[in-house]
Design goal:
Distance between the termini of chain A: 26 Å
Helix content of chain B: 40-55%
Shape of chain B: globular
Strand content of chain B: 25-35%
Number of domains of chain B: 1
Radius of gyration of chain A: 23 Å
Radius of gyration of chain B: 16 Å
Protein name (chain B): Lipoprotein
Shape of chain A: elongated
Keywords (chain A): Membrane, Transmembrane, Transmembrane helix
Number of helices of chain A: 10
Order of helices and strands of chain B: HHHHHEEEEE
Structural class of chain A: mainly alpha
Distance between the termini of chain B: 44 Å
Helix content of chain A: 55-70%
Oligomer: heterodimer
Pfam family, one (chain A): DUF6766
Number of strands of chain B: 5
Number of domains of chain A: 2
């Protein structure tokens, strides 16, 4: 197997989803520009170009409000599954392993192995930070994209205000408007539903070969097994 | 704090279509509208606003605008959000929108009517 082919094969999950991300984002951009053009033509105004739409508040808020909820989902999932378990779910760890577990089980400090990441064995703040780095990065990305949602949503809201011949509002004023919280909660609720569904469905249903599923023949009460 | 403000400003400029770039054009369109005669003002209206005026006054847009107390004052302030703008004249408030032909007046003769909203003498339906 050539080097390139091996690289593609060994990284097909991230590359595949990276490609799907680009294709679907492009699809959203084209469809969104067409929709905005239709709205403007209904009002007797001209269509918008793709370039104009890509720098518009409308596109920015539609993208950011989805990103923030996805990062919230994963940060909550990473943090919550330390403490919350689900009997029979491959998304859960074993019921008796609730909590941050021992240094030995986590291979940190003196229990780090030769091939462990350097900060796992470094001790002190470096091990403390590295031990939480997945949740921290997802949490930081959530906060950043939520803040971006508030800014983009503010701009889009003010566009609507001006279109209906009303004063624009301040950013702080926008945070108190139903529009911001409607955008926020409508995305959050769907993420909670998806995680909850996955935790429960995977107790009783199987997907042969998927690490998100238990082995097909695993018993329903088996927890933490992946197939 | 300064860095946060800079990022916030950059973000707002990006998602509002680099508003400051359009400010001179918006203010110029508002000045032209305020200083223009009825014909010039009619030419600066959006299609929707023009049609609404024509609908109200069969004699035509210029005749209709002659009778309306629209502002003639200086531009005091302007805000641009994406392809929409609000300009406060000394004696009026205008709402403008960006069209393929440039910035046009979507509403004029606007007076506050509470809760940040305006009643406008000229506006599209």
């Amino acid at each position: 197997m050539s080097g390139v082919r091996r690289f593609l094969s060994e990284n097909s999950l991230s590359l595949g989803f990276g490609l799907l991300f680009v294709v679907t984002l492009a699809g959203q951009a084209v469809a969104g520009a067409a929709q905005l053009s239709e709205e403007r033509q209904d009002e007797g105004l001209g269509p918008v170009s793709l370039g104009h739409y890509l720098t518009s508040s409308s596109f920015a808020v539609d993208v950011m409000e989805n990103w923030q909820s996805e990062y919230l989902q994963f940060s909550l999932y990473v943090f919550a599954t330390v403490w919350l378990v689900q009997r029979g779910s491959p998304a859960s760890k074993e019921l008796e392993a609730v909590g941050t577990e021992s240094d030995e089980e986590q291979r940190v400090g003196a229990h780090a192995r030769a091939d462990s990441p350097r900060w796992a064995g470094a001790g002190g703040w470096r091990t403390a930070v590295f031990s939480r780095s997945l949740g921290l990065v997802f949490g930081a990305l959530f906060l950043l994209t939520w803040a971006a949602t508030s800014v983009a949503g503010w701009a889009a809201y003010n566009v609507d205000q001006l279109r209906s011949h009303a004063d624009p509002v301040s950013w702080v004023g926008y945070l108190g408007r139903p529009d911001f919280w409607d955008r926020t909660f409508q995305n959050w609720q769907s993420e909670m539903l998806a995680v909850g569904s996955m935790a429960v469905f995977a107790v009783y249903l199987r997907q042969r070969g998927s690490p998100e599923s238990k082995p097909v023949g695993a018993a329903h009460p088996d927890t933490g097994a992946t197939g | 704090m300064r860095t946060t403000s800079a990022w916030l400003t950059a973000g707002v400029l990006l998602v509002s279509g680099c508003s400051d770039v359009h400010l001179p054009d918006v203010e110029q369109a508002a000045r032209d509208f305020a200083a223009g005669d009825a014909d010039a003002r009619c030419a600066l209206l959006t299609d929707a606003a023009f049609q609404a005026v024509q609908h109200e006054e069969p004699a035509g847009c210029p005749v209709a605008l002659e009778d309306l107390p629209l502002g003639t004052g200086e531009v005091e302030s302007a805000q641009v959000w994406d392809s929409e703008a609000q300009v406060r004249l000394a004696d009026d408030t205008l709402f403008l929108t960006r069209t393929p032909g440039g910035w046009e007046v979507a509403a004029a003769g606007c007076r506050p009517c509470g809760d940040g909203r305006y009643d406008c003498l000229v506006e599209g339906s």
